[in-house]
Amino acid sequence: MTRPVLILGGTGEARALASLLVADGVSVVSSLAGRVRNPRLPDGEVRIGGFGGVEGMVAWLRENQPHAVVDATHPFAQQISRNAVEACAEVGVPLVRLVRPAWEAQAGDDWTIVEDIVGAARAVAGGNAARVLLTTGRQDADAFAGIDSAWFLIRVVDPPTGPLPPHHRIVRSRGPYGLDDERTLMADEKIDLLVTKNSGGELTRAKLIAARELGIPVVMVARPVEPCGNVVTSVEEAANFGRK
What we know:
The chain is an alpha/beta fold. Helices cover 31% and strands 21% of the residues. It has two domains: 5-101 and 225-243, Rossmann fold, CATH 3.40.50; 111-221, Rossmann fold (3-Layer(aba) Sandwich), CATH 3.40.50. The protein has helices spanning 12-23, 53-64, 78-91, 117-125, 179-188, 206-214, 235-243; strands at 5-8, 28-32, 45-48, 68-71, 95-98, 111-114, 131-134, 151-156, 168-172, 193-197, 218-221, 231-232. The chain has a six-stranded parallel β-sheet with strand order 3-2-1-4-5-12, with helices on both faces. Helix 2 crosses helix 3. The longest helix has 14 residues, at 78-91.
């Protein structure tokens, strides 16, 4: 039996990697957390749902015996990445982390970099913004629930489940986003602050360019420290790892 590659996915890079490996005849199992309704499914076999922590992932690895694991989850998916490091070390399965390069401030940008989502909420509460575009994801919107000094345009794929700021509107959409659309959105909504995470990549970079052009400051949540020491930044590098 051909031993598969396990891809911890949910990102565009994970889907691209699955397509590349499947086209090369490599057996692939992509694992999706199941937090997004109607996710874009990658090529190859797909499993949906968590493993049940480190012990559950260890059990899955032993039962399915992948020859390699590629963690291609979102840069802020800290728990699954930590679990993958522990589980792969215990079972002895090679692991690589595929992570898109982080965004870097350019000339003309006005960024305030904070360590975490709590820091982002403090920055908003302590500032003078009146209309905030919040693009940190549905699981983090509740960090801003206590702020009544600003109105929030909360952009998410699926609706938030926790408490929300008293003054807000939810817009459900999925990237990629074009620069013209981002400019129009920020101008029409009179946005005077963008709050986002340093997810990196091209799919959502346009909001940063639009903010720069419109003179809108940005509160940027910095990336957490990567728990995996074996990191690559391109799909092709990850594919070479999976082909071995």
